[in-house]
Amino acid sequence: MESLYSDIVRFMEEYFIAYSQYGQLPETQHVMDKFYAPNLTFDDDVVKSRAEWYERCLAHPAIQDKLSVEHLIVDEKQKEVGALLKTQAIERATGEVLLELKMNVLYSLRIDADNDIKIAKVKVFLESDPRKAARLV
Length: 137
Fold this sequence. Notes:
42% strand; 3 helices; 25% helix; 5-stranded mixed beta sheet; alpha+beta; single chain
């Protein structure tokens, strides 16, 4: 590794592209194994494994979630990344953006036995505009 900081930034940049393009389709979702630890958890305790997360990602097949990074903060020592993201819910059939939100996400990373970076825990903080939040339901 040239530097852990550079490796983390590169990993996260690759992750956002991969999630947006491959992570929500059953035939390509396996690509995400490169990014998620098998025991991936989310702060809400609803998702307690990578398999559960994959199921959730397939819950809305007509809509693609596209993540765009606006800012990354990397804590090399604690192996954490804070990301300010723009997420768009895009109708696959038409390409129409149905909803756009800002989110802050804290990713806790782990270096696995193969010396690969993996996302181990995710904490998501969504934009608080109630009109947008109501459209998520």
